[in-house]
Amino acid sequence: MNESGQPRDNDSPAIEVRGLSMRYGSLVVMKDLDFQVRRGEIFIIMGGSGSGKSTLLKHLIGLKAPAEGSIHFDGEDFGGAEPDARKEMLKRMGVLYQNGALWGGLTLGENVALPLEAYTDLDAEAIGEVVSLKLALVGLRGLAPLYPSEISGGMRKRAALARATALDPEVLFFDEPSSGLDPITASRLDDLILQIRDSFGTTVVVVSHDLASIFKIADRALFLDIEKKTMTALGPPEDLRDDPPSDEVQRFLTRSSEAGSGQSTRQTA
Ligand SMILES: Nc1ncnc2c1ncn2[C@@H]1O[C@H](COP(=O)(O)OP(=O)(O)OP(=O)(O)O)[C@@H](O)[C@H]1O
Ligand SMILES: [Mg+2]
Predict the structure, then answer these.
(1) Nearest residue (CA) to ligand 1, atom 7
(2) Residue 84: its pLDDT value, please?
(3) Which domain holds residue 32?
């Protein structure tokens, strides 16, 4: 449609990955990844532990460079961009890391204010208004003065989400949002992710192996096969479950949900 050099805002993909291979030194994590993330969709990266989900996320946000291939953010080659251009691209992304913690020595309000102080010219009063608004959007109205240690794990994730959305990102990246949360709290966080996408049209990329969450929020899901070291499925998770392209995908999507939601939050490097 827009392959011929005429990117149209809504048709062109938010992210395009071409021929991506990912490596740590001589360890090949994944190779030959080709996919696009569409604007406004909730795109899940799924796969077993160690398959390379977090590593792929690091590539998508430019924290790690491709061993081969390229990643295009809004049509622009991320890896090839000049530092200034990359910084501009990064401002348009919000990220919640797998163990993405708030700063414990700062209040929730101060945490959410950090990206606003770093990347905008807003004065203190305006920042305070944005902080209040962002906290209210995640259901934490009036809790700006509290410290992370004073609130529950689910509320901390919400506060981290408020921080990640502080700059109104076009794309929101989320590594294992439900890890460490009970199913009900995790489900509420999923509601919030859906709400953010629906209200703001934000493109959301989520790493997850939590089946309940995958079926609840994903428009499409990408499966990373740890044995084949490449992607072996991409589509709506219901379609992949009903007509699985491989035994691994079938096993992954039909395993008992206990195995899915109870997995621990392993530390990433
Ligand atoms: N910094 C690193 N240096 C070397 N190897 C790494 C590093 N980070 C991850 N790996 C290896 O890369 C592979 C993919 O790791 P990654 O953390 O991306 O997997 P994951 O799918 O996110 O797993 P999990 O579900 O446990 O979070 C694993 O074999 C891991 O041991
Ligand atoms: Mg991971």
Answers:
(1) 269
(2) 87
(3) 15-92+170-261
Q: What φ, ψ does residue 29 adopt, rounded to 5°?
A: -85, -50
Domain boundary among 146, 168, 190: 168
Whether 85 and 108 map to the same domain: the answer is: no
Which ligand number lies closest to the CA of residue 29? 1
Using left for φ > 0, alpha for ψ between -120 and 50, and beta otherwise, residue 50 falls in left
Same domain? 38 vs 151 = no
Tokens, residue 148: 């992370």
SS3 at position 152:
coil
Rounded to the nearest angstrom, the distance between the alpha carbon of 58 and the centre of ligand 1 is 11
What's the whole-model pTM score?
Answer: 0.90
Evaluate whether residue 4 is within a structural domain. no
- Is the beta carbon of 53 within 6 A of some atom in ligand 1? yes
247 and 179 within one domain: yes
Q: Compute the radius of gyration of the chain from its Cα atoms.
A: 18
Compute the distance from residue 52 Cα to the ligand 1 centre, in Å: 5
Based on the domain organization, do 186 and 255 belong to the same domain?
yes
In angstroms, what is the span from residue 59 Cα to ligand 1's centroid? Answer: 12
Instruction: Identify which of 173, 213, 268 to mutate to test ligand 1's pocket (most ligand atoms within 8 A of the CB).
Output: 268
Q: Tally the domains of the chain.
A: 2
Task: Compute the average pLDDT of residues 97-107.
Answer: 85
